Amino acid sequence: MKTYTSASDHVQLHDLLFVTLLSEDQVQERVREIGAEITQAYRNKKPLFISILSGAFVFAADLIRAFGGDCEIGFVKLASYSGTRSSGDVQTVMGLEKDLQGRHLIVVEDIVDTGRTLHFFLDHLRSRQPASICTVTFLRKPDAAEFPVPIDYVGFDIEDRFVVGYGLDYDGLGRNLPGIYQRSK
Ligand code: 5GP
Questions:
Q1: Measured distance CA(158)–CA(142) in Å, rounded
Q2: 28 is in which domain, residue-wise?
Q3: Whose CA is nearest to atom 19 of ligand 1?
C-alpha cells in the first residue's frame, strides 16, 4: 500500500515525479487567512460559494469551513466541446440551477492558468444578474495568463509548471495529496 504523508518530499504518479512545493501546513494556514478575510468582507451577506468541479472541491470544502458566517455552496461542471465556430472550444455550464439574481457570489477555483475557464464562467454569471461577484483561487500562474480575469483572493502565485495535490490531479491521481507538488524538472 502506498502511503502519502505531508512529510514526503516527493511523490510518483503514473510516469511522473513530483516534488513538494507547499506543505499541508502552509496550505491550511493560507486557507484560514483567506477564510478570515472573506468573513470580514461578507459580514451579514450570506454569500453563495460556487465551486468549479472537479479540482476546486477540496479547497472549497476547507474554505467554507474557514468562513465564519451563514453561507451556501453550489457546484458547477464546465464541459467543453469542439464547436463549429472558429473561436474553438465552446463551454457549457452544468449544475447551477439556483436563482442567482441578487445573490453575492464567491467563485472558487483551484488554479488559474490561462484564465480561460474563469473568463468564460464570469461572463455567464454576469448574465444572471447577481448582486456581486468575487473570485478566489488557491493557485495562480501569472506567467501563463492569456485572458484578463479579475481575481480578488489568491492563495499563492506560482511559476508556470504543472502541479498536483489538494484537489488537482495528474491523469486522475493526486487529488488526495494534502499539499501541493510540482512536476520535477
Ligand atoms: P485555465 O482555464 O485558467 O487555463 O485553466 C484552469 C484549469 O486547468 C484548472 O481548473 C485546472 O483544472 C487545469 N490546470 C491548469 N494548470 C494546472 C496544473 O498545473 N495542474 C493541474 N492538475 N491542473 C491544471
A1: 7
A2: 4-183
A3: 162
pTM score? 0.92
- Among residues 99, 110, 113, 152, the one annotated as catalytic is 113
Question: What distance in angstroms lies between residue 112's CA and the mean position of ligand 1's atoms?
Answer: 6
The finding on whether 115 has its CB within 6 A of some atom of ligand 1 is yes
The neighbour count for residue 110, using CB atoms within 10 Å, is 26
The question of whether 152 is a catalytic residue gets the answer: no
CATH number where 164 lies:
3.40.50.2020
The per-residue pLDDT for range 139-182, each reduced to its tens digit, is 999 999 999 899 999 999 999 999 999 999 999 999 999 999 99
Q: How many domains does the chain have?
A: 1
What are the counts of helices (DSSP H) followed by strands (DSSP E) for the chain? 3, 10
- Kindly give the pairing relationship between strand 104-112 and strand 48-53: parallel
pLDDT digits 0-9 by tens, 113-144: 999 999 999 999 999 999 999 999 999 999 99
Side-chain half-sphere CA neighbours of 149 within 13 A: 30
CA–CA separation, 72 vs 51, rounded Å?
A: 11
Predicted pLDDT at 2: 54
